[in-house]
Amino acid sequence: MSSKLSFLKLAWLNLSRRALPTSIAVLAIAMAVAISGVLLKLYVLSQARFATLAQEGQSVVGAKASGMDILLGALNLEGPYPDFLPYALFESLRRQDSVKFEDGAVTHSHQVHGVVPLLYFAQMPGATGFRVIGTNGDFLRRPGSGQGSLQVSQGRWFLGGDDELVLGSEVARRLGLEVGDTVSLSLIDPVAALQEQSGSGGPSEANSESPAFEVVGILKPTQKIWDFAAFAPIHRGQHWLGQFDLNPISIWRNNVLHYFLVYHEPEAFGPLQSLINQRTVAQIISVEQEVGRLKELTSLGEQFGFVFTLLVLFMAGACVAAMMTTRFEAMSVQLAILRALGYTKGEIATTLVLEGAFLGLMACVLGGLTDFLLFPWVRDLVGLDFHSFVANPYWQSLKVWGAAMVASVAAVSIPVFRLYRQDVHQSLKGL
Predict the structure, then answer these.
(1) What is the full DSSP assignment across 295-354?
(2) Full-model pTM
(3) What is the pLDDT of residue 267?
(4) Total structural domains in the chain?
């Protein structure tokens, strides 16, 4: 073999002449590449699963549900459409009033420093899933927030008089919106949304009257979920909810909200939890406690996924090594003839390495295509289709392809080692 082209040609002929075992090996490695790529991307996404979680407020108040549901619904904007809360409860805490209950129990709210309302009443246009949140000026002026107060990078915060909208940085970037633009929002029908979740009705539909909101400001990036939301005056959100018949789900009509964040002294949580959880339709949770439970639940799954990914990659390399070793046994006479024809051990070793590279390359192409088509379905199936600041996860597959190529080439080391120890005369006796 006097040129590189002859190496390539001989390596390809060796593979193509044994089409069946070559095809089986390529399919096996491709499957390992596809599975490893999907698992690695799921592992990366699972690590970033709650990176956008806004750990703000000492507590969150929502309708009766699990603590995890309230935490993720309020501070990661995910999950099903939540039930309503009475706006009067929020107003009592905001005004620092004493909260009085029907059984005569009273709690004083002088230890509450701030309360921020959240009402999901619309979505941004298109299939973006960006929620529009009704809130007030306290959303910017949150006391004791671990992330610090939010700031407006362009324009201003809404004044509350008209249908004004402030966009998170990612919403503005992805939709190409600027201050001064007008946006037609898609209203959410709460009754239809809750019926769809319970399976008792058809899909939720937006009101035919899509309200037009003016973009008056864009927030500075926070690297949190607020970058993927838009904000409007809460009373305007309640007004647009009033366009729907809320009697089946709300005794308070449209005088409602979904969550409110509470900033308070640590010792205030116990009394608030006892009174709110036991005597109202609401439930208060500790942000710190629920975040701790969330980390405990997710850490084990992430570690298992990473280990399983490494295991599948190891199996792919072992598959190549086993095939190349078996093929060497079958090719021992052929290699001895090549040696007799004048090919050096180095030239034959180069051919074997190229065979491994060809196998790895074909498997990466086939496995990469399978990975590309399979991953969106798997991501939706396991619930990892969420807003994230992780770079395009498809690029994570490049690491798997590189590992598969290295494993395929490295697997040739066993037959190459045996090549250098081969007794040509003994092998030729088998003719």
Answers:
(1) HHHHHHHHHHHHHHHHHHHHHHHHHHHHHHHHHHHHHHHHHHHHHHTT--HHHHHHHHHH
(2) 0.70
(3) 84
(4) 2
